[in-house]
Amino acid sequence: MALGCLVPASRAVLKQRWRLILPPAGVLGGRPFFCREESSPGRPLGRGCCGAPETTSPSFGFLFDIDGVLLRGRLVIPAAKKAFQKLTDAKGRFRVPVAFVTNAGNCSRDDKAEELSEALGFKVSPEWVILSHSPLHLFHQFHDKCMLVCGQGPVEENARKFGHGTFLVCLENIYKKMTGKDLKYEALIGKPSTVTYRYAEHVIKQQMESCGWTSPLRQLYAVGDNPMADIYGANLYNRYLQAQAEVNVTAMAAESEEHLEVQRNRSISVGSAESCLSILVCTGVYNPYGDMPGDRNENMLETAFHGHRDFHFDPSLVEASHVVNDVNDAVELVFQKENWKQE
C-alpha cells in the first residue's frame, strides 16, 4: 500500500499541481477529494467557443451528462452526433450555451475534453467540462490545505480514486464505531449535489458572457440517463431555485452555504436561473420497462435509492420533467419549448 502526505515542504508543488483539496466529502460514485488544476478557474473563456451572437441571444442552456447520454464507454451514441449538429455551427461553435456535467473524477478536465472532442467531432474546451471535483473551485478555504492520501499505486492516481462511495460508507461506520458520533462533512459535491449544479450554472453564465450573449440566463435543461443522480440532482436544484425566487435563501438545499465563501470570489455569482428542468433519456442507465417498483411510496427507498446518507430521499425528485428516447430528441424538445430557430 502506498502512503503519501502533502506536507508544507512541498508547498510549491501543491500550489502548482494540487490547488483544490478538500477533507473527506462526496457522494456515491463521485470522487470529490483531490484535484489537479489544469486551467485557471477565473480565466475567461475564449471567443472561439461560440459563433457570432444570434439575432436573439439564448436565455437557456444545456447541462449534458456524458456516459449513457453522449457516450457508451469510448463510443459515441449516434444520437449525440445529430444533437450537436443542431447545437453547433459549421465551424463547431456553439449556438447556445452548453456544459458537460459528469460524476467522473478519474481523469483531468483536459483529458475528458479531448475524449469528447474526438467523439463528437469538434473542439470541446476543458472549461466546459465539470467533473465531480470541479466545484472545489468554490472552496477557497481548502485550496492550500494538506491531506493524507492512501491506496495502492502512485500517489497521483490514488488521489483521484480516494472518493469512492464505498470508502465513504466504511469511513462513516468506522468513525461512528470509534467516536459514537456521525461523521460530518463540509459539503457534498458531485451529482446530485446542488453545489455541483450551482457551479454548472456559473460555467454556463461565463460562456454566455464570453460569447456576447446578453440575455440573462432564464432556464437550464439538465439531460441525463440516471434518475438517482442526474434527475434527482436537477430536480433538487430546481427546488432550490424556486425557493430562492420566493425568499432570499442564503443556504443551499441540503448543504452548508457558509463554507462556499462566494463573496471571496466575485466571479462566482449566485444562482440566477428561474428553473432547471430535467430530461431523462433511455440510452443509458434508465430502463423505461423496469427498475422502478410499482408502489413507489412503499418500495422505492429500499429498491432504488443508493444515494449518500445526507441526501434525504424524496420520490418526487426522481420523476423527470420529460422522458425522451435520446439526446437528439432532448435537444429538439428544448428548441421547440424555447421556440429556438435553427440556422
Could you please describe the fold and organization of this structure?
The chain has a single domain (2-45, 57-338), classed as 3-Layer(aba) Sandwich (Rossmann fold). The chain is 32% helix and 13% strand. It is built from 9 helices and 12 strands. Strands 8-7-4-10-11-12 form a 6-stranded parallel sheet, sandwiched between helices. It has a two-stranded antiparallel ribbon with strand order 1-9. A two-stranded antiparallel sheet has the order 2-3. Helix 7 (227-246) links the parallel strand 10 (219-224) and strand 11. Helix 2 runs parallel beside helix 9. Residues 1-48, 248-269 and 298-303 have low confidence and may be disordered.
Keywords:
6-stranded parallel sheet; globular; HAD-SF_hydro_IIA; 343 residues; 32% helix; two-stranded antiparallel sheet; HAD_sf; disordered N terminus; Rossmann fold; alpha/beta; 12 strands
SSE topology:
Blueprint: E1 2-5, H1 11-17, E2 20-21, E3 34-35, E4 60-64, E5 71-72, E6 75-76, H2 78-87, E7 98-101, H3 109-120, E8 129-130, E9 148-151, H4 155-161, H5 165-179, H6 194-211, E10 219-224, H7 227-246, E11 275-281, H8 296-303, E12 322-324, H9 327-338
Parallel strand pairs: 4-7, 4-10, 7-8, 10-11, 11-12
Antiparallel strand pairs: 1-9, 2-3, 5-6
Helix pairs in contact: 2-9
